[in-house]
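Before the break, one more example. Copy the sequence into your notebook; we will annotate it together after we see the structure.
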Amino acid sequence: MHVSNKYNVPCSRPRHLALVVAAVAALGSVTAAADTTVTVLRIESSSAEKRYYEEVVAAYEAEHPDVNVEFEYLANEAYKTRLPTMLQSSQRPDIYYTWGGEGLRDQVDAGFVRDLSEPMRDGWQDIYPESAVRAFTLDDRVYGAPLYATVVGIWANTALTEQAGVDAQAIKTWEDFENAVVALREEGITPLVVGGQDGWPLHFYWGSLVTRLAGGEGIEAAKSGDNSGFNGEPFVRAGEMLQSLVELDPFQSGFMATSYERASGMFGDGEAAFHVMGDWDYLPSKQRSVSGEGVPDDDLLFVPFPEVEGGEGNAQSFGGMNGFAVTRDAPDEAVDFLRFLLNADNQRKAAATGIFVPVAEGSAEALETPYARRVAEILEQSAFHQVFLDQALGTSVGATINDISGDLAQGVVTPEEAVARVEEAWQFR
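Here is what the structure looks like once it is written out:
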């Protein structure tokens, strides 16, 4: 932190006092020359996104030569595992990536997170839609700032779907999706690739189905214990539908031993026709492919997750509202940098690169890729955006949801047993 100290020492003071003051002044000048370091912890991201952060940091440091900003990246699972411990230590980051929801609440309740309500009210939150700020608002206080929204859908390789006579753009319902899986398997093409090892990619199936069936209101009702809580019919049916899909043999061999990163690269290599994943996988799937090029853009589609007959949440979307929080003891410079990173100008620059779909108002106009524009359309048309259940329901419940999603896919639990475990985790969180 830049410190400026000025001392006016009268000549009449004793010489030894003057020497003491001079020494203090000298120390002050050393402090003034010292940099404040702001550390930012982020989940591992694409090289394009890292370059974007580097450019933002360079611009900020040019304006603030007394501040040094450092980004650190951890793989998804390592991030989730290490973050709680890091927040409790003296090595906690000043700024860290967050999905909001009950997971953020746990961190707030533990006293790890800085309240951003006041700086947000100072014109900061005006650039974001209300729904984006709401994801980081707890008890009317704001504890995070939004960066971008994500949507779970189906990445489709049309070069493969067309071989099987499947029109990927025509997939609208769950029945359409299952029929496509059957047609692909009959043609000898692996329908779906999934990183079952990590849990959360399979949760994208169960969580998306829950959102389609119950909708945001149904999920909130379950949290309140209404309609049998998480033992309710929509949650059971979501498990039944996932297991019915698995009976069609949709996944690659050894899917439970495959990481998300590997599955992403496999889709990029053309080893499966579909990948149910977030919109962010556009660049990673290319970079993780053997060629480094991935599926050619002309053969790539992003299809909304299918609707379910009679579903209460068919007009809703499922995904993330991602942003950053500031830790309790972080310097004020951390708040200042975060505000700079997430301002409208920088979000428009991010949109132009195609690395994600920012939430700052007006930034969507800068989106250049058809996939990013499609995601923006889905979000705009969505009546409600449900945050990932493994984040929205908190760390312990989220871990249970990821576990039961894998167990459902392997057929080692019934849908009723799976939701009973979720309900128990929610009650004892």
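The chain has 18 helices and eleven strands. The longest strand covers residues 145-157. Try to locate both features in your own notes.
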